[in-house]
Amino acid sequence: MPAQNIHIGLCGAGIGGLAAAIALRRAGAQVTVLEAAAELGEIGAGIQMTPNVSRLLIEWGVADIIGTNLVEFEELNMRRRDGTKVGYTRMIPNVRRDLGYPWWVVHRAHLHSGLVQTALQHGAKIHTNSRVTSLDYTSSSSVKVQTSSPTHPTHTFDLLIGSDGVNSIVRRTLFPDVKPAPPTTNCAYRAIVPYEQIRKDPIARELIEKLTMEVWMAEKSYIITYPISAGQDFNLVLSHHVDRLVDKVEEVDVEEVRRQYKDYDPRIKKIVDMIPEASRWPLLVTGPLESWSSPGKNVVLMGDAAHSMVNHMAQGAATSMEDGAFLGRCIAQVVQGRLKLAQAIEVYEKGRMPKAHFKQQVSFLNGAIWHLPDGPAQEARDKAMSLELGDKPVLRSPNLYGNPTTSLCVYAYDAEEHADAELYKYINGKEMMDEEKNITKIMADKYLNWFLPEDYEGKQLRIEAKL
Ligand SMILES: Cc1cc2nc3c(=O)[nH]c(=O)nc-3n(C[C@H](O)[C@H](O)[C@H](O)COP(=O)(O)OP(=O)(O)OC[C@H]3O[C@@H](n4cnc5c(N)ncnc54)[C@H](O)[C@@H]3O)c2cc1C
Questions:
Q1: Tell me: the pLDDT tens digits for 325-345?
Q2: Predicted structure pTM score
Q3: Is this entry keyworded Acyltransferase (predicted)?
Q4: Is 161 helix (H, G, I), strand (E, B) or coil?
């Protein structure tokens, strides 16, 4: 097949859509992003950028733009509600040493702005004030999109990607019966308190002596905190239950937040009392869906539109970004004339759908662990986790942020490497592997190549993607 010029439209300039725009430009496609909002931006709260996506931020040059607003923290302390430490993960230097990339925490506005700048530098076009109002993907192989924009009301694309979040119009058009829903009455407050204010409090300031992530676990609630904005702001996500299902963001009275956490460790309680304003966020879950695409594979979903998940593993935006990176590798094969568009989308769905489902599962699981009711289950969790406080390596722990298994499957995952392996399999009809040693590239990368020196001569197991 000859090389192809393809024009891809993204509906939605959230974290996922922008990551996809960068990856697709790197793949050589023409990219237009349509965003409903009048101005590009993100809500005022923090977000974790775990090593599975910090690797993308570094590779794509986004990390250089965000600079010191990406904060790396020294340690993760897992605590009971009363402050008792039951688990511990040393983050610096272990995360970079063992997973190869940092675990960052960042203000969403800084992340979003870094992604916008990088997407524009890579040549993506972004139209604001362009709410997608309808799409026609059946009249021809291309997709016609109507928007609310007075200046650019219609667009035609070879492929439309629905990166428009949990209430996606693209998903509602393809799959009108799918309804994202809160699986339980669990939701989360989000809030920020300036470090300056905490420093003035003789009790609370102990918590900010070092840059740390802290988790306080309790029955049906928890608090997770971390530094953002070059270590100037203290970000809190406060999990709780209400007496009804919540499906929209709600403004709440800070007195409600204070009451909810009144029995917590006095140090964090002091900081909760400083929260100037807070909102309650729903935790909506989408799917698992049977398909993410139109029958002609000219429309496809990604991110929260396809697989929104509960927040307990900090993987919603990260999974959206992985989708974008994976799509980029698939579309590169189309641009280079090796695959048809429909084939590339088939590889994307086959590779990413099980991964997104796994992320949803592991997120539920961590929520269940952190919210365990007081009593024998919580005591057993704390006992198992507390092995981390000793000086011996631990092979298994209920602290999924530090557990070796979840670290490898979630935080060491490389979406681009996964895409290359899936594409190789699709094109060549067999797995990418060292035929002599009978070891697949995916297994070699996970268990062996990570520790081999870059210049190791016998690096035959570092099989290059020969697509
Ligand atoms: C309390 C809480 C904490 C979280 N913490 C983390 C974390 O630490 N790490 C992490 O990875 N994830 C976290 N998440 C999840 C994360 O916020 C989401 O998964 C992520 O923002 C989804 O990104 P997205 O780009 O898919 O969708 P969105 O961010 O929803 O972006 C969708 C975009 O599409 C636009 N849009 C919508 N409709 C249209 C339309 N019709 N036409 C044009 N544009 C449209 C919207 O304006 C928006 O810009 C958390 C979530 C919650 C609730």
A1: 999 999 999 999 999 999 999
A2: 0.97
A3: no
A4: strand
